[in-house]
Amino acid sequence: MAEECTHDCSTCGKNCSSRTQEFDFSAKLNAASKVGKVIAVASGKGGVGKSFVTTMLAVAAMRNGLKAGILDADITGPSIPKAFGLEGGTFQTEDGIEPKVSNCGIRVISLNMLVKDPTDPVVWRGPVIAGAVKQFWTDVHWGELDVMFVDMPPGTGDVPLTVYQSLPVDGVVVVSSPQELVEQIVSKSVKMAGMLKKPVLALVENMSYLKCPCCGNEMPVFGESKAEKLAEKFEIPRHCRLPVNPEFAKAIDAGAAELLEIPELEELARVCLK
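User: That's the sequence. What structure does it adopt?
Assistant: Structure tokens below.
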């Protein structure tokens, strides 16, 4: 078979020992846009508050004087627009699809803005979903951003792989909760980032404790915190713990995320976005 080799790996589908070229999956950013850092917010499972953390990191970035945007890559469960009270569809100009802009100037794109009824289920196969995420990068007119946060779907499937391979991700923030399975969940997210050579910048343990309104003591309603232990084990340079706070949910449901102040995430954003 050696005499048949053209030594041009780009035209060959064989996975032979002589293959030296790696395929470049990177996608070209919308021509009328400029994006500084790209931070992916990931988790090995759903229900840990990943979209909430993404939202509040973007708010924290704005408060630190940065121009921020959010690419909602959770195609089958988009929730970012609701947190900012963004309703209705978007439109297209000669520069591309225009994202919605929050009251404080955060640019957001989500599938909810591109469908007639946001309550309809998205019944698409993985490659189609991954393609839509890629188009959010190539076809959306982001303008000039200092940082873009990518709200990833849970798990390690097609979409996270597409984001890591197609977008110039500078770092990953992993979100977890204190439940017993958390070590396995964090491990998967950290290992996937490592396989694709993306640094994990921080671990955020959401719903870490409930502060007693009477005495102020921290009550670990979902189990003892594992944030410090996991950050040390997986060599994650920073970690923070967020409380269970009914005011958080109330503000998100009202589309008033920008009114919330969460010092832990503001400090995290300050450090990670230097």
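Residues 29-272 form a domain with the Rossmann fold fold (CATH 3.40.50.300).
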